[in-house]
């Protein structure tokens, strides 16, 4: 894809996040996938945003490149995130995608992520500062400095696996107490049963990491 295609995606993300009252905190656009960390305000606002965004962008790419058919492989995958324990870790996970993919050596070198806004003070008008991000410092400069310092720490391999696993399987990313709260409030399991259990039940769908 050309740089203009990335710009179109972000422009529509800005439009739909405002339309459906969804706060966008973190993002990265890769050549074959995207990651978004969102907070929906009304119920299903994130689903409405993603459905509109996926549909618009597929039509845009097909028209621009004179192609037909689907653009994405299946439905988007998402999970509910325990913000207190995982928000900043997931933020780093997302913005480090270009580094793990060996595209750049540091996230600051990649133009199509929220790192330039969260860490460097670049203006990305549709981004909203999450309370976990705001807790990093008393002012914007202190927060950006503290945020950059987080990237000096390596995300443990088991945490990377955990994030990928729960996202791909649409489970919940959080501790046992958080998962229990989700189960009580939603009436659905937040994690798989032990081996040998009933695996037919639908997973908890409403989420904030897409």
UniProtKB/TrEMBL annotation:
Q: Which domain of life is it from?
A: Bacteria
- Residue ranges of domain Transposase IS200-like in the record: 2-97
Please provide the Gene Ontology terms (biological process) for this protein. Answer: DNA transposition
- What SMART domains does the entry give? Y1_Tnp
- Give the Gene Ontology MF terms in alphabetical order: DNA binding; transposase activity
Q: Which Pfam families match?
A: Y1_Tnp
Regions of biased composition (Basic and acidic residues) lie at 197-210
In this chain, the stretch annotated as Disordered covers: 184-210
UniProt protein name: Predicted transposase
